[in-house]
Amino acid sequence: CYRENILKTAKALVEDTKLLVSGAASSQDKLAQAAQSSATTITQLAEVVKLGAASLGSDDPETQVVLINAIKDVAKALSDLIGATKGAASKPADDPSMYQLKGAAKVMVTNVTSLLKTVKAVEDEATRGTRALEATIEYIKQELTVFQSSEVPEKTSSPEESIRMTKGITMATAKAVAAGNSCRQEDVIATANLSRKAVADMLAACKQASYHPDVSEEVRERALRFGTECTLGYLELLEHVLLV
């Protein structure tokens, strides 16, 4: 029942995505309608996914987290897409903002597809761990793209905060190695959820620290490079766990 509702609402959201992209080249009214429609649809989708997560029961919290994370990714992608649509409104087809819009639309569709795959995998206990890991790998790749962009973070933090956040990576690495050894679905799901948060926190702290007023251009470049290398190394680890 929940799966059918999620599928139907997600399909409607993909249609809203198409309207948003086409709306950038049309009138402000049409763009506003498309944005309002997508906001309504994402709210409905979040509700049916939450009901689906609740139906799993409290004895499987890690899988519930996987589902909630999947809808959070879709909501974030929609927010980014609406922002990109506003930036591209009334601009010529070859304007850089149009390429950003296409990129945002692609991420949106990728995340909706990922949500649907996750919903399907939840019904099959044998594939839950694998799917959770695949979704986490995709999420980390998207976070790395944001990290590598020229966008300056809204706030800065101290280098100490960045160092503190690397401890989460150490813990998640140990968990990933243990999951690769045990191959138990619940261990793999827990690893996926922990890895997702650990890497996202590390990337955010690293970028914020690298833009601290006391940090030189050279140190900033090194910090950003090491943040990227750490993430790529961690992605490789997760790929190995997935293979196992």
From TrEMBL:
Domain Talin IBS2B intervals: 8-119, 129-241
A cellular component term, taken from the record's GO annotations: plasma membrane
Primary site of residence: cytoplasm
Keyword line: Cytoplasm
GO MF terms held by the record: actin filament binding; integrin binding
SUPFAM superfamilies (alphabetical): alpha-catenin/vinculin-like (SSF47220)
Localisation: Cytoplasm
Biological processes, Gene Ontology terms: actin cytoskeleton organization; cell-cell adhesion
Pfam families: Talin_IBS2B (PF21896)
Protein name: TLN2 protein
Lineage start: Eukaryota, Metazoa, Chordata, Craniata, Vertebrata
Gene: Tln2_0
